[in-house]
Amino acid sequence: MFWKDLWEIMTVTTLWELLLIFTAKIVEVSIGTLRGILIVKGYRTPGVLLSLVEIILWVFVASRVITGLADSPMKGIAYALGFSAGVYFGSLLEQKLAVGKLLVQTITTEKTGLEIAAILREQGYGVTIVDAKGKMEKRSILMVYTNRRGSSLIIATILKIDPNAMIVQNDVSTLVGGFIHSGKSLIK
Known about the structure:
Number of strands: 4
Number of helices: 6
Low-confidence stretches: none
Structural class: alpha+beta
Order of helices and strands: HHHHEHEEHE
Strand content: 15-25%
Shape: elongated
């Protein structure tokens, strides 16, 4: 009796409908994740447009699940699994798009700092050098404002010259003036 009831609960809703709920929820939550990040980083217009798509998907998917939940608990499970997968895929999407700007700060020796700065400048980056005093010797702090996309090349260049360099990356929400273009395009 138990197995028959369980089988009936699991097969009330067709597999294609469960897959549709699951997939739509992944898309909706991925869009929501990306929208939140864009809004925080100051990209309002794309964020607003994504919110429109997100809420349309949410209304239709949630209403489909809620109205049929009593008859088919599998809809709720598909919805929950889609939500979890959407958070994961949304974070991957954001990482691939690499939206925004970074401040890459490097602490290294004085001599190595000049060498790193020269090479980064040859590659087209603006580099600011600040003299610093370390625990035992003079140091240099190099600051480079850059787009998140491609920042791994800067780090690879620094580590190739000085594997012991201390590197700190910080997100930048506002940038005015300086060497880097301060436009608000999403992908550069």
